[in-house]
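pinging the channel bc i need a second pair of eyes. not urgent but kinda urgent?? the chain im working w is below, pasted from the shared doc
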Amino acid sequence: MSMKKKYKLGNHNGLECSRIYIQNKTLAEFGFKPGSVFVCEQDGEDFLLRLVVLEDDDIVWGEPHTVCYKEKQGVSVIDISGHWVRDIFEGYTHYTLDYEQGVIKVGGGNE
């Protein structure tokens, strides 16, 4: 099963279109539970970013990220930001999320 949604790229520390903030119950349904560790991978020339949940014995290059939990709303949260997000999504105002089990494909989009 997969599901696709579109969101506006956020700003981070005054840097436009540099933040991807995902907060919803859908994350956990597709394997991104609080405390899960994931990596961001650039996938192909279309600047598609893949968020991939890691297993305990996976070895990765680069910095892994952790899914947080917003207790008040009872939802998982992924918050990635910085110059590299802006660079990957340069020219886009929005991003799309395509959920698959253990993988979220993040693509660029406009209104």
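so The longest helix spans residues 83-88. and The chain is about 10% helix and 50% strand. — does that match what u expected or am i reading it wrong
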